[in-house]
Amino acid sequence: MATNAALKNQLVNKQPEASKQVAAQSLGLKNLLSAPTMKKKFEQVLEKKAPQFMSSLLNLYNGDPNIQAAEPMSIVSSAMVAATLDLPIDKNLGYAWIVPFYDSKKGHKAAQFQLGYKGYIQLALRTGQYKSINVIEVREGELVKWNRLTEEIDLDLDAATSDKVIGYCGYFKLINGFEKTVYWTRDEIEAHRIKFNKAKDKTSLNNVWRSDYDAMAMKTVLRNMLGKWGILSVEMQTAVAEDEKEPEMKDITDEASEVEDITEPEIIDVVPKTGKTDSKEKPSVIDQEIKFD
Asked: Which residue range forms the structural domain that includes residue 250?
């Protein structure tokens, strides 16, 4: 017959097994990415490039106190969108960004995926329909003439009188010969930014607008141009839909939030939201919503 001491020992030995299954929100990003199920998810999307991508995500996290303050699962979900689109998340490259916000409804800081202007160019080129595509800043003295009706623009890129940016010019040409040129003045960009600014202070510069205004302005021109006149693949349509998700969140402060380092537990399996995915194909961004039971 088992003694009381023996029963207690059995209960103690079984307890760690139950405690291994924990909610994703209680894990730090490093522990979350170390979980076998999470590694498998990234490997399904990126294959051999998965370790490098996950390493770049950790480097981004470790180097940005604002992202450290965001809920870890939201960071992973944002990174998964970039991974599915096969775009790097190094903010210095300008292809895609993971941007932290304060979610006033949920009461915590969260991360959101944003597509950079270079990401738009990359996705456009992958369609095989674009012979050329570009967007540039136009500096004071470079603009000779712009006809809004005929979309004829005359630029002298050697005639800049200062480094002041007065506008942004986008252009693309398809392999079938169709081409489009657009020009936005700095005032038009600013009016667009203020109109869609989710902050209480509409004129405030938030996140990437604050750190790299020109990159966001060029992205605005590209997104508008491609959305109206370009050829959008399914991949591009999905990327645009993800990029246009703008939940009503307030911008986070510059205060860093420490993430407690815990031992590596086994987390509950990650499952796609709907449907099954062929292991030979990359899952779509839409199916990459990750949840924990």
From this structure: 24-115+245-293
Q: Are residues 100 and 142 in the same domain?
A: no
- Calpha distance 158→156 (Å, rounded): 5
Name the pTM for this structure: 0.70
What mean pLDDT comes out for the span 213-231? 93
Domain assignment present for residue 15? The answer is no
Q: For 98-131, what is each residue's pLDDT tens digit?
A: 988 877 777 778 898 999 999 999 999 999 999 9
Q: How many domains does the chain have?
A: 2
Question: Strand 143-147 relative to strand 165-174: parallel, antiparallel, unpaired?
Answer: unpaired
Q: 97 is written with which tokens? A: 């960004």
- What separation in angstroms does the CA of 271 have from each of 6, 74, 292? 39, 16, 8
Q: pLDDT for 49-81, tens place per residue?
A: 999 999 999 999 999 998 999 999 999 999 999
Instruction: Classify residue 282: in a domain, yes or no.
Output: yes
